[in-house]
Here is the input.
Amino acid sequence: MERHDPRLRDTRHGRLAAPARVLVVSSSSARRRALAAGLEDDGFAVLDAATAEETLWCLVAERSSGGRGIDLIVADAATPDVLPLLEDVAVGPSPPALVLVGAARVKERLGAAHVVDDRLPAVSAAVERALEAHRQPPEAGPLRVAVALADAARRDALVSLLVRRGGGVIQVDDGLELLELLGRQVTQPDGWYPAVAVLDARLPRMDGLDALAEVRQFDRTLRAFVLVEAGDAAAREAVAGLAPADAVEREIAPAALADRVLERRRQGDTTQLTRCRV
Here is the structure.
């Protein structure tokens, strides 16, 4: 793996600053060097890796060294074994932003907001957009989100992404805890009442669909996203009947789910919130 000089000038502000750290991954030496050189010219600190194994080593080494880690990965989809690795990275804690080069078919699976060809201007522009979206705080104050997911790794990754992007998040274990939370908060004028709920159709005690049906008895405005199995038409139909709600395939990447949630940000809610746990 080749490390490039990270002492770069922040051209947008005209001063020396800690640049975004970008990992370029490609099994093609020529493509890797061209992408790295172009991103360096744009003012990024660039590392590069030729294989999935080098990519994993770099991510682990950067995080374990005590630094802030990798901010963004630019990955050539043709690199052997790199896509399964990136799927694992996407559900880990504080995953980096992601730009895929030539991989439109896996955009939704990996939650990559930007898929481009290998032309340098297109890649550079995609990197800027991905970093901006990755760090974008809510425009109208924190969005209040209740999260109840069966998969602990996906739940933790989603919560981390929402909190990092300015959301106020509370975790509940199942549908009954969600109902208890809403029941407590609705009676308190200054209580923590969510604007959005992210639920799993498969939860202990009470699943997300049954909980949402109960919620609709007293709240017809709470926005909901319900994770369902791919191809489960009955579950999708049930979610559609509990609008405003969207059915989301269970395998969606946390980054893509966070984007969906934050698109539904309610305007005017500027109460400062912090992450909490019931």
The mean pLDDT is 76.
